[in-house]
TrEMBL record:
Name this polypeptide is given: Dihydrolipoyllysine-residue succinyltransferase component of 2-oxoglutarate dehydrogenase complex
Entry similarity comment: Belongs to the 2-oxoacid dehydrogenase family.
Species in which this protein is naturally found: Thiothrix nivea (strain ATCC 35100 / DSM 5205 / JP2)
Domain Lipoyl-binding: 2-77
InterPro entries found in the cross-reference section: 2-oxoA_DH_lipoyl-BS (IPR003016), 2-oxoacid_dehydrogenase (IPR050537), 2-oxoacid_DH_actylTfrase (IPR001078), Biotin_lipoyl (IPR000089), CAT-like_dom_sf (IPR023213), E3-bd_dom_sf (IPR036625), PSBD (IPR004167), Single_hybrid_motif (IPR011053)
Amino acid sequence: MSSEILTPVLPESVADATVVAWSKKPGDAVKQDEVLVEIETDKVVLEVPAPFDGVLTEILEDAGATVTSSQLLGRMEAGAVAAKLAEAASAPKAEEAPAAPVAEAQTAPAVRKMMAENDLAAADVQGSGKQGRILKEDVQAAVAAKPESKPAAAPAPVASASAPKMEVAASGSRMEQRVPMTRLRARIAERLLHAKSSTAMLTTFNEIDMKPLMDLRNQYKDQFEKKHKAKLGFMSLFVKAAATALQRFPEINASIDGNDIVYHGYCDIGIAVSSDRGLVVPILRNTENMGLADIESGIAGYAAKAREGKLDMNDLSGGTFTITNGGVFGSLLSTPILNPPQSAILGMHSIQKRPVVVNDEIVIRPMMYVALSYDHRIVDGQGAVTFLKTIKELVENPVRLVLDV
């Protein structure tokens, strides 16, 4: 039985996609649900699995090709024909070289060429991709780590079917490299530029004394994890505080559509997550009805899917408000950029002990700066400042989250 391998059905908002890499080559045996090829859109990387056990017989669109929804990518065979093909493909040949390691076999041709030009074997490079797959960045790191007594030769330009040529120039140890943006990175750049140019963005700041929240977490985290099978973190409490505040300030939870302002009766909060391919924002839906355990489980699930590259379109679509936490990378203060068409985004930052005045006395407290960037076309300054102050008050007195006061 022959089967066609097609590009997944893309949403209406996504015109086309790019073939990232094939994990198999023609003649390779394939198990059912094993990933055959990865397709990158401007939002997420999609995996195309094998529909059954068989053999990949043909690849029609190589890595780098631009494809559209339901386009034919290749073909595979199943059943007796597949078994014969697999047997023939695995039969030893006198002139055949030893099989390459799995990580090297799954490496894109351009990356293998770069390795060869720098005299690197798969064992010399630590792969950071899925299943140990070697990426361009891994080769670059291995080249940089090579002893200076043996400077690497300048890699030759690498071309693909749809991407501009990769031009690399080196002079001694001073290396430069020009590579095309991935679709996801290009989309991020486009959206950020659009947000800066098409909105009246302002940012307001405040600071939060994290001691009450830290004390509460330390007191109940073990019981919470034992009962709910989820760790109690700070993000869930900020999400809950944001959902409560969004219901009090509907303009923060609104968006502009043409000449209309759309007020959303639900709080779908996006949590900015860093992945190998860039920043993605999966959505927690109806957070106004979620408990802390549900929020923690949702965040953990999305983080795992982001690491494994398994986020899909539904995970990333929609959202009425966004929270980003630069504090996990050590950021003390920043101005987050809006995620259009949302009207606001909350930025969390690192917690640092600082001297503050409490009851006319100077004490040391764990403090966090928070920032709210907002679209001044929808949100007035008073509403933005009061919203952020509400977040501060709820976090500094977390009992209010439980009592909803």
